Amino acid sequence: MIFLRYILFPIVPFYYLVTWLRNKLYDLEIKKSISYHIPVICVGNLSVGGTGKTPMIEYLIGLLKEDYLVATLSRGYKRKTEGFQLADNDATAKSIGDEPFQFYNKFKKEILVAVDADRNNGIKQLQLIDGKPEIILLDDAFQHRKVKAGFNILLTTYSKPYFKDIVLPTGNLREPRNGSKRANVIVVTKCPKNISDAEKNSILQQINPEANQHVFFSSISYLDHVISSNTNRSIEGLEDFTLVTGIANAAPLVHFLNEKALKFEHLNFKDHHEFSKQDILELNKKELIVTTEKDFMRLKQYESLRDKLFYLPISITINDEVKINKLIKSFLKTKL
């Protein structure tokens, strides 16, 4: 796959030109973006792959849900439905996608969860329902420029920052690096917890933010227990188990479990893997399965796995939560 990417390098300038031109047309308002009176906060990235959008959306939900009626709006990647869908008690990972289903399972009594590939239509539909939201969080919509979000949060990982990457197909960027200028906030995610001030300053210099942009650093925190559909277990008490992951980068999770000196085998699938009947038959043979929360949303439907399937929750820690929270709430005051 890596070799193929290098072979396709001659295509890179064409991809760059097409995406640059598309953005330029929006910047010049030749192509139209729609703004809304309702506050719209977008969380996204420049690159393909996992940058930590789901934990960031959950962070925002936790910050806002006590004071506002919040809705999340996602594409619903790999769902089996089409058009606008508002999550309800019949929702599954297949009907709305695994990440939106995760939001719904965790916060269903406190927020609205919707999916629509057409974000403008999704916003319009949300505003038509009874009990319409006061704030909409757009999940993975940084390149969806038909919507002009009021506040853009751009994520980039510590290990693979956008400023050291190039566009597809050889690199991982969906658009040129200068797309980062649209962000109000840039968060460098999945940082080591002991990242030094010198390293932060070095990254800041490479990002070279605009005067109106703010840069933050976040790290992942794993909880000290795993959760099933009906019980919790301490990580320290886990013995020989199977780790099942279908995410973009499982390395941080594997590193955490290795640091705990736990004994496990790792079944590593591609991101958003659709578990087949054969996969489930193989998993049925395992005595204890630990997975990510996102994968748990797809696997928990199988009754045969219910008593052996657990997920390890995560949260994020941001280096200056007071400042980022103040920026977000200041934006809301201008819209509400």
UniProtKB/TrEMBL annotation:
Pathway info:
Glycolipid biosynthesis; lipid IV(A) biosynthesis; lipid IV(A) from (3R)-3-hydroxytetradecanoyl-[acyl-carrier-protein] and UDP-N-acetyl-alpha-D-glucosamine: step 6/6
The answer to whether UniProt assigns keyword Oxidoreductase to this entry is no
Q: Which domain of life is it from?
A: Bacteria
Which Pfam families did the record assign? LpxK
Q: One GO MF term, please?
A: lipid-A 4'-kinase activity
Q: Which family does it belong to?
A: Belongs to the LpxK family.
Functional note? Transfers the gamma-phosphate of ATP to the 4'-position of a tetraacyldisaccharide 1-phosphate intermediate (termed DS-1-P) to form tetraacyldisaccharide 1,4'-bis-phosphate (lipid IVA).
The name under which this protein is listed is: Tetraacyldisaccharide 4'-kinase
Q: What is the lineage of its organism?
A: Bacteria, Pseudomonadati, Bacteroidota, Flavobacteriia, Flavobacteriales
